[in-house]
Amino acid sequence: MSESMPGRLTPSVFIIAGAFAALQIVSTSFGPYGYFIDELYYLACAHRLDFGYVDHPPLSILMLSATCTLFGQSMLAIRLPAILAVAGTATLAGVLARRLGGGAYAQAAATLAVATGPISLVLGSFFSMNAFEGLLWTLCGLVLLKLLQSDEPRWWLLVGLLFGLGLENKHTSVLLGLGLAAGLMLTQARRHLLTPWPWLGGLAALLLLAPNLVWQVAHGWPSLEFYRNAQLHKNISTPPLKILADQALFLGPGSLPVWIAGLVFYLRAAAAQKYRLLGWAFATLLTLMLLSGSSRPDRIAAYYPILFAAGGVALERLAQAWGDIWLKGATVALVLASGLFVLPMSLPLLPPAQVAAYVQAVGILPKIERGKTSPLPQWLADRTGWEEFVADVAAVCRSLSAEERAQAVIYAPSYGQAGAVERFGPALGLPPVIASHNSYWMWARGRAIPEVLVAVGANPNDLRAMFTEYRLVRVHRCDYCMSWRNEMPIYVAKGLRVDFGSAWERAKHFE
């Protein structure tokens, strides 16, 4: 099949992507779970539009704000952009396979590998910038493929624009830049550096990132502090073999042959001589993962659709060379079986008790951050108990006198708890909430001194030092939430006896 005249895109690409989107809509609409912890925080960010936030750039928050304005704040409304982004990524994997000369099988295999992977199932089930990262990286891959096929360096300008959008969506997209830079230097494509276009592309990316860079400078580079603390306190130091095993698990065990075939195709196949850059870029990303000891398999997951596309083509050509239709059927069956195996622990469909029993039965409970445990995977555990938590806070507030309620401020230790109070509190008449976590800490600087503090999860020693009186009123409990949220004490403190501004500076928690 000619590179310049690729075949038609098979309808199965759209069928698979559509089925993925439909499954996500059903799970959000009828599943027994609530908002994910990060969604509550992102909604709070969307009400405070800015050129940056402590832990992420502004692009995804701008999209969320527009979504809320147009469609409201329901779970389905805010998740539709993420669902469409991941479904679009799966579709683009099929388009990439087509551009590589793949037929119907290659396109369908690439799309299916993306759509059934645990990482896609999870990221498509809640709003976050991670869903858009995969779409932007895969679009970069598609443009790079066009560039390498045409040997036309002007396409670097569009690559730079997409890379800049990626950086404005998520700072970790810098990894893609490092991978592409290595691939460029290690292959014949480095001759493009003698033209102005790669440099103009880099300038375009920098200009797109400039508003966030200005914000970072104005606020003392808070994101650098956040990333440093996250690496020190949240990351679980992971040995290389465990990192490789986690890559296989989170991308889908059944898809392992597809992406390995894709990597070999890019690096070794004679027909892929032009595309070596794409192979070396991934090899660089994987090497960085192994050297860093990162416990976050999602850090480079956005690149895999580019591998799946090449893997579909490689397996299709291998089956044609061997005259073996069973290879095609076996690969599809393996990918589907893998997707069905991980489905109960990936999507918010089954009740928590059933998911906990399934996880225990299969013996797989991924842990990606230090000090957090639950009977459920974190991406499900952090969707439980939010309305019950706010109800407990409301009960404490109702115990206050009318005068105390008028002077009260709620303190929460986490952006998720603060976001939950913001989302559900107004209907219950709750007072304002502050938190010392990430951007919430910045938003509370310079606030009026709280006369009465409803303190969630506070250390009693801190309350004793800061207030003349305090009392424990309630303890919030949740069966399936992450362990740090269970047995959460709720105090009422009065009579502030220290400088609140100084105390707030010390309370900062960027992580």
Structural write-up:
The protein has 511 residues and is α/β, with parallel strands linked by helices. The chain folds into two domains: 11-355, no CATH class; 386-507, no CATH class. It is built from 24 helices and five strands. The mean pLDDT is 94.
Over all CA atoms, what is the radius of gyration? Answer: 25 Å
Low-confidence stretches: none
Beta-strand residue fraction:
5-15%
Helical fraction equals: 55-70%
Q: Would you tell me the overall average pLDDT?
A: 94
By DSSP (H or I, 4+ residues per run), the number of helices equals 24
Report the strand count: 5
> What structural class should be given to the helix and strand makeup?
alpha/beta
Largest sheet: 5 strands, mixed
**SSE succession:** HHHHHHHHHHHHHHHHHHHHEHEHEHEEH
Taking the alpha carbons of the first and last residues, their distance comes to 50 Å
Q: Strand arrangement, largest sheet?
A: 2-1-3-5-4
Supply the number of structural domains: 2
Which geometry do the CA atoms define?
globular
Which terms would index this structure?
single chain, 511 residues, alpha/beta, 24 helices, 62% helix
Summarize the structure.
By secondary structure, the protein is of the alpha/beta class.
